[in-house]
């Protein structure tokens, strides 16, 4: 440790830690020099902060860069504004929690720090990190007047400085920040916040106190304030722009370790596909034109091969295959259609592929929502194709015919799998589509070229392609979670039928609670000791299972 670092650490500890005026003076001087700020950050971490293993906290270069840019001031004296893009799991939110703790340590009197995010859970992330930093250090904890975790959560310093967190979502119309004038403002996952909410509520709040204004997240649509902050020439002079990728995140620097290794990232790139939107946005941190779309049109068109596909009209003339076949069914409701797709597992050049061999749509004109008809049709298709597995969407109305299909599959010796789109992180619609998109990126999904099909088959395949191209990412009503759905007035029946069919075909069924394979065979009887009767052994356990009439012998009250 250098002499300068020792002097800094001495200035931060002991009696000096309680000399607020002297510390604030040191801080304001250091804020003019990034080199000195880096030394101060390292000295502060060594003196007061620990990691999850209770070791002195050591930050990675990416984290140090974020903290230094957050805490230093501009040389021209203008308001400090920072826009940060960093990959998932890189520790960017943790870095900002350290920046907040340092700021509160030096600025203890009547400052207002705001942590904003698109959801309450996301806003709580940095808040909870700050709480842990404070609570784990006796000195920092002694500077805190009160921790409040419910009903406008806050951390209040004895000098009057307050840190608050709040969600910014359409459900609250941005009211949490209205009328507030923070002296330090951090917006976590800024790209996920609706643009109108942001412009109407956040940008006006930071004007009066010239508060340092820090935005961070991973990229989404270009039609967003975060893209303007980073790439619009009109904002070039106003914002300090930091763009990190996974290559920056894998550098440990002085830290004990990096969040992930280069080998792990290369495996993830191969899994998702180098050109996939997920990879480019989550780890390369690129804004992509079609980021709102789940599938890129050129990738969908690249799935086409020249071969015939069976439909409801031609099914009877098809030949059964010796290769494994899975039938995926999206059960229609309201104005939606029921779509049945058949997928055959084949050996590809490098990996197994799923080939679409059958497609059928049951709409209001061809059967509507007549459950007995749909049940018979699903089983007829499965049996005529020689399918070994039937996967149905058991969400909503699909649950109404789940038991009927299950029993029919048992009788036909077909493996039945109900799929619930809304159950668990592994079985969520987003996770299932993420794998599906990866398969398409890798060329493992094959469909017939509609140009070479008869009129009816071509119409079905063109609709299949159109629904996949239209499918998009949206935010739910509360703007809290990302979901996948068709645009207003359009449908995703072909997509949902295909995603569950392909997962069944390629053996990528999530292990969590969204998929449930039915067990056809009965459970074997347990080996239990038997009781001897006059007629022989009863087969029951040694101990009675009859409920006993237990009594509590409580003494009466003496009045």
Strand-pairing-aware structural class: alpha/beta
DSSP strand content: 15-25%
Distance between the termini: 77 Å
Largest sheet: 8 strands, mixed
User: Uncertain segments of ≥5 residues (pLDDT<50)?
Assistant: 423-427, 509-548, 550-559
Radius of gyration using CA atoms only: 30 Å
Q: What is the fold named in CATH at topology level of the largest domain?
A: Nucleotidyltransferase, domain 5
Could you state the oligomeric state of the chains shown? single chain
What is the number of strand segments?
A: 19
Mean pLDDT: 82
Number of domains: 2
What is the correct CATH architecture of the largest domain?
A: 2-Layer Sandwich
Secondary structure tally, helices: 19
Strand order of the largest sheet: 3-4-5-2-6-7-1-8
* Residues in helices, as a percent range: 25-40%
Identify the CATH class of the largest domain: Alpha Beta
Shape: elongated
Summarize this structure briefly.
With 559 residues, the chain is an alpha/beta fold.
Explain how this protein is built.
By secondary structure, the chain is α/β, with parallel strands linked by helices. It has 2 domains: 57-267, 3-Layer(aba) Sandwich (Rossmann fold); 292-505, 2-Layer Sandwich (Nucleotidyltransferase, domain 5). The protein has 19 helices and 19 strands. The chain has helices at 3-12, 20-30, 34-48, 61-71, 92-106, 120-136, 138-142, 195-205, 225-231, 246-249, 262-272, 277-282, 297-301, 371-385, 402-411, 424-427, 429-441, 455-470, 493-505, and strands spanning 81-85, 112-117, 144-148, 154-157, 162-167, 184-187, 213-217, 240-243, 304-305, 325-330, 338-347, 352-362, 389-393, 415-419, 445-448, 472-475, 482-485, 532-533, 536-537. The strands form 4 sheets. The protein has an 8-stranded mixed beta sheet, sandwiched between helices. Strand 13, helix 15 (402-411) and strand 14 form a beta-alpha-beta unit. Helix 3 (34-48) packs across helix 4 (61-71) and helix 17 (429-441) packs across helix 19. The longest helix is centred in the N-terminal third of the chain and has 17 residues, at 120-136.
């Amino acid at each position: 440790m250098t002499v300068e670092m020792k002097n800094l650490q001495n200035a931060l500890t002991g009696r000096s830690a309680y000399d607020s005026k002297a510390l604030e003076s040191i801080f304001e001087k250091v804020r003019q020099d990034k080199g000195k700020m880096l030394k101060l950050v390292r000295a502060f971490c060594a003196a007061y902060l620990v990691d999850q293993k209770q070791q002195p906290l050591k930050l990675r270069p990416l984290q140090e860069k974020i903290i230094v840019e957050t805490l230093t001031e501009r040389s021209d004296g203008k308001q400090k504004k920072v826009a940060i893009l960093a990959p998932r799991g890189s520790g960017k939110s943790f870095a900002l929690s350290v920046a907040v703790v340092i700021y509160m340590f030096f600025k203890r009197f009547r400052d207002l720090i705001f942590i904003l995010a698109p959801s309450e859970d996301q806003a709580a992330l940095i808040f909870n990190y700050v709480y842990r930093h404070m609570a784990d250090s006796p000195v920092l904890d002694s500077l805190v007047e009160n921790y409040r975790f419910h009903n406008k959560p806050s951390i209040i310093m004895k000098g009057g400085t307050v840190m608050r967190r709040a969600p910014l979502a359409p459900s609250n119309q941005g009211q949490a920040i209205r009328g507030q004038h923070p002296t330090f403002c951090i917006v976590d996952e800024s790209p996920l916040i609706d643009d109108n909410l942001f412009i109407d509520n956040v940008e006006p709040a930071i004007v009066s106190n010239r508060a340092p204004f820090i935005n961070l997240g991973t990229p989404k649509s270009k039609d967003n304030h975060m893209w303007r902050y980073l790439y619009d020439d009109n904002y070039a002079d106003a914002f300090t722009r930091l763009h990190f990728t996974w290559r920056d995140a894998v550098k440990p620097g002085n830290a004990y370790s990096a969040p992930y290794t280069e080998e792990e990232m290369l495996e993830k790139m191969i899994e998702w596909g180098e050109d996939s939107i997920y990879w480019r946005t989550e780890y390369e941190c690129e804004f992509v034109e079609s980021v709102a779309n789940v599938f890129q049109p050129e990738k969908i068109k690249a799935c086409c091969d020249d071969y015939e596909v069976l439909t409801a009209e031609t099914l009877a003339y098809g030949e059964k295959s010796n290769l494994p076949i899975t039938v995926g069914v999206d059960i229609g409701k309201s104005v939606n259609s029921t779509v049945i797709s058949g997928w055959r597992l084949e050996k590809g050049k490098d990996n197994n592929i799923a080939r679409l061999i059958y497609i059928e749509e049951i709409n209001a004109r061809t059967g509507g929502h007549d459950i007995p008809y749909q049940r018979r049709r699903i089983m007829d298709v499965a049996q005529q194709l020689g399918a070994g597995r039937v996967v149905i969407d058991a969400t909503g109305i699909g649950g109404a015919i789940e038991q009927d299909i299950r029993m029919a599959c048992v009788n036909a010796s077909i493996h039945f799998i109900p799929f619930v789109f809304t159950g668990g992180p592994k079985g969520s619609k987003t996770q299932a589509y993420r794998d599906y998109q990866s398969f398409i990126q890798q060329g493992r999904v094959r469909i017939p070229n509609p140009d070479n099909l008869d009129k009816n088959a071509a119409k079905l395949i063109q609709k299949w392609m159109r629904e996949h191209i239209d499918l998009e990412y949206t935010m739910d009503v509360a703007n809290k979670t990302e979901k996948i759905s068709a645009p207003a007035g359009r449908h995703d029946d072909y997509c949902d039928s295909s995603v569950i069919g392909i997962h069944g075909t390629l053996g990528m069924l999530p292990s969590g609670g969204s998929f449930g394979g039915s067990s056809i065979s009965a459970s074997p009887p347990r080996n239990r000791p038997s009781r001897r009767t006059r007629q022989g052994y009863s087969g029951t356990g040694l101990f009675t299972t009859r409920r006993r009439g237990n009594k509590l012998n409580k003494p009466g009250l003496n009045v």
